[in-house]
């Protein structure tokens, strides 16, 4: 499948087609909040963004940004060709528990050491996620953790027909 035609970024936007492969990690000072079960379960201005070609950024929040008891280690793991072995958490907020909705890299691969102690989650499974006060749209596809805001231009991997990108 050929690479799609990137959307032209507008003022203040960045194109996901300018992101690198392999991905890059960069700090973000934007205020990031996560809500589940009617409760704010995470808040930080010290997140990391992982930027990879064709994907909206995935935000990784410091473990200490999460409310006590909101992350519960659970069974299972997965492998990322770039970042290494991931471990998972069930996410709790209010009266809700969402199985395997967050992950971390306890021993990240070389080049991704900054992710140690940080946790990403699936915005589609939360009540809402905010970046700088803007509500995030989740990346399509069910297995991706990208956070779409007005800051990024696509098209984004995960949408129907994007499997081979």
Total domains, how many? 1
Distance between the termini: 7 Å
CATH architectural grouping:
Beta Complex
Count of beta strands: 15
Largest sheet, in brief, is: 7 strands, antiparallel
Strand fraction band?
Answer: 35-45%
Average predicted confidence as pLDDT: 96
Question: Are there runs of 5+ residues with pLDDT below 50, and where?
Answer: none
Please identify the top-level CATH class. Mainly Beta
CATH evolutionary superfamily: Domain of unknown function (DUF427)
CATH fold-level topology: Metal Binding Protein, Guanine Nucleotide Exchange Factor, Chain A
Q: What sequence of helices (H) and strands (E) makes up the elements?
A: EEEEEEEEEEEEEEE
Helix content: under 10%
């Amino acid at each position: 499948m050929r690479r799609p035609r990137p959307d032209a970024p507008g003022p203040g936007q960045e194109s996901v087609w300018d992101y690198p492969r392999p991905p890059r990690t960069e700090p973000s000072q934007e205020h990031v909040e996560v809500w589940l079960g009617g409760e704010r379960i995470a808040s930080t201005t010290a997140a990391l963004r992982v930027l990879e070609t064709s994907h909206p950024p995935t935000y990784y929040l410091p473990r200490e940004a999460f409310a006590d008891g909101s992350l519960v280690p659970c069974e299972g793991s997965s492998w990322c060709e770039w970042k290494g072995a991931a471990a998972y958490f069930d996410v709790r907020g209010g009266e809700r528990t969402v199985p395997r909705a967050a992950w971390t890299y306890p021993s990240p691969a070389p080049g991704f050491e900054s992710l140690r102690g940080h946790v990403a989650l699936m915005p589609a499974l939360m009540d809402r996620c905010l970046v700088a006060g803007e509500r995030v749209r989740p990346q399509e596809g069910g297995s991706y953790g990208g956070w779409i805001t007005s800051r990024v231009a696509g098209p984004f991997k995960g949408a129907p027909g994007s499997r081979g990108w």
